[in-house]
Amino acid sequence: MAEKQGLNGAYYGPAIPPPRHYHRPGRGSSCCGCCCLVTFLLKVIFTVLALVGLFLLVVWLIFRPINKVKFHVTDVALTEFNHTNNMLRYNLTFNVNIRNPNKKIGIYYDRIEAKAFYEGQRFDYQSLTPFYQGHKNTTVLNVVFNGQQPVTLQGQELTQFNSEKASGLYSITLELSLRVRFKLGKVKTTRFKPKIECDDLKIPLIGLSAAGSSGKCDIKF
């Protein structure tokens, strides 16, 4: 190794080599990958929280006591309700008012299944036409059950039927199984599956009458 001589012949020793920089391959890319993964997970979490928050807001706006969607059976016509030899023959029509009192929320009724029950037994089923209900709107559903179905009534059930037949006033339950979406501005929620139960219905045979003590129906999720 050549020795370095300075001015005036002074000797400064051997030349100092430049510092060497060592690089560990793969460490930088690994850190970047971890950071990207954490960022992605945080974005997913925030997105899920935002969607959940929007869902809770819409449900609260729809079903709070002030602006609750209301279902009400207004009219019922029962022209036949006869049970012989474990066969029920019936002719029954319901008018159901659906009131959406919300100012900014519309409702998509994607599926409407109407079911009629007597003494806990379903005796008919109808699928109604889907529709969209705008804000501050009242829609009337017309549900018709007409036909005959095997229905077995024994013991207390048969006694109850004979008692109601004598009085001419029958206890019939209407149930609506729905699949709905809510629209708030341009945002549409996921589908919900509420069940509407109208079980306070006392229906007289023949003629048109107000239903039950109130005709109001309960919403269950």
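(the above was protein one; protein two follows)
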Amino acid sequence: MKGSRIELGDVTPHNIKQLKRLNQVIFPVSYNDKFYKDVLEVGELAKLGTKMLNHVLNICEKDGTFDNIYLHVQISNESAIDFYQKFGFEIIETKKNYYKRIEPADAHVLQKSLRSPCAPPSGELQKAE
């Protein structure tokens, strides 16, 4: 199999049957049709989330008056934490009992800095000493 090349792309309605066949050959368990429907929906939601976050980040960066962006994520939501970390967000704090009606009730506060630590805020000049 020397010189073979494998490319992985997004799962779409056009190739979902290929994924199903690969899973049948590779994994010792079989997945029902709902699993594959969910795979397609999650993929679309991830694309939408990426577009929306990029849109917000672009607006904030173009505006130039924002130093940081903050958001809260439930501590058990690892996929959301990973998603935001790919965009440069970092966990800076954990708030106890942030949520009132869900468990776990704690939330991480994530921050993305829009300025480099050395850069002065927009409109301010750094004084020479």
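Reviewer note on protein two: Residues 88 and 107 are 18 Å apart (CA to CA).
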